[in-house]
Amino acid sequence: MVNHFLKLSDIAPEEIQPLLERAIELKAGATSNALAGKSVAILFEKPSLRTKLSFWVGTEKLGGHPVHFAPEEVGLGRREPIADVANVMSRMSDIAVIRTFEQSIIEEFAAAASIPVINALTDLEHPCQALADTQTIMEQLGGVSGAKVAYIGDGNNVAVSLGYAVAGLGGHLTVASPAGYTVPGESLEGANTYGASAGGSVTQVTSPEEAVASADIVYTDVWTSMGQETESAKRLVDLDGYQVNPRLLDQAGSNVKFMHDLPAHPGEEISDGLLYDSRSIVFDQAENRLWAQAALMEKLI
Length: 301
Ligand code: NVA
Hints:
Helices cover about 40% and strands about 15% of the residues. By secondary structure, the protein is an alpha/beta fold. The strands form 2 sheets. It has a 5-stranded parallel β-sheet with strand order 7-6-5-8-9. Strand 3 (about 95-100), helix 5 (about 105-110) and strand 4 form a beta-alpha-beta unit. The protein binds norvaline.
């Protein structure tokens, strides 16, 4: 039975905390040879900075060898059937890291693979991001249990995975989005069920002010995700009023921290300069991709 990480809930809620503690240990200098003599195939069908760099460097830190395929190289399901690619990769590498479009693509890939498959972003989830995010919240607040996290804007892949991770660790995520941009109902329900035993929750509201009231963390992501470029003009109009800026942060808890998974679009979902506001922890968050994913690869292998 191969362990995949295709969505955040592929690991049990009680497995998240130890995984993040291991990530923090690796960050503090613990060494690991978990991938010695092993290769990690990294296949991306969308652009990437942090994900490529963190999986590449993370693989090397664990003693392994990364092999990267850029979007135009493989043509998953177009140049070659998805299952054929999965079979070939399984013969020559030890972990497959996939960034693609529909969740069904990575599910089909994993069904044919005999090595662990990691979701490095799909249209539905970005679970590696959520591991790094909750690691960052742990570092900042000492834990995620009881934390109040506000997510403002598009209820997208980042919001979905964040909801599962925060709720699974006993925290509370409130998502503020306009009609048409809320977290899918199935994911909202799924995250609440997933987080129930830890006492965590995910709530959808409309008002950004309501979401940020007494929040420890305010989080946002782009209004136009990769693959949605043709909707960009409409999204700018529909999400107007959901910008995170100093005025909104001032309405949150007095020690509020600001998070964004990057890349950011100042003037859209954030105001100019917000990444460099004293309350911003976005670059700690970005760095933690490296450590959270190293801990994940160690666990899956
Ligand atoms: N929601 C964004 C995240 C980018 C890391 C996207 O899917 O493009």
